[in-house]
Amino acid sequence: MIINQAVLYTHLLDTMKDFYVNSLDFPLTAASPRSFSIKVGESELTFKESSLHTKPFYHFAFNVPANRFMEAKQWATQRVFLNTEEKKDEIYFEAFDAHSFYFEDPAHNIVEYISRHSDCPSSKVPFSSKSLLSIGEINLTTPHVHSVGTQLINSGITVRNNRLLNNTFNFLGSGSAFFLVGAPKRRWFFSNRDSEVHPLMVKVNHSLTVALDEKGMLKITQE
Fold it and tell me: In the list 41, 88, 127, 157, which could disulfide-bond 134, CB 3.0-4.6 Å?
């Protein structure tokens, strides 16, 4: 699976733009009074100003070249404070053969940099934000976990390793990109924040648009 674009919402549009463009040096691809977009390798991340009088936050991951994890971590520690879990600021996921570290942006999105050693290519250039490969994960938090998961499966996005759907938390996708489909009030790893339902839109595989509304209902359209 490939995540082409993720559209998220924020109540801190100008602050977020300054953070991602000036502090983290992401290439700005579009900007307006109500939104901005940045380039994340083969993907695009867009933030739109929230009109729901809420403070949306999400979990998403950026794919780091397979051989650049430690360099990416050193780069990040010069710009942000890394989150910790049990006094550790990184983790190795054996099931994914991947290393990750986490931090929060000004809107308290839980941002993960993940290096999937078996599924991501290596890079010959020193690490920078321009080295990131793509968006690797995005959460779909919903009280309707099973039905949302079923909709994704019916659209060709399967549960990782062909496992059965459960009603709490699932990885759906393949390769280096996944939807994290889970219920609200679940604590996000490497944070003290519990998951909440917020609207978003994700384009995948150059053909599907996956849109979650403020009630956690999913709509999928085929282009």
Answer: 41
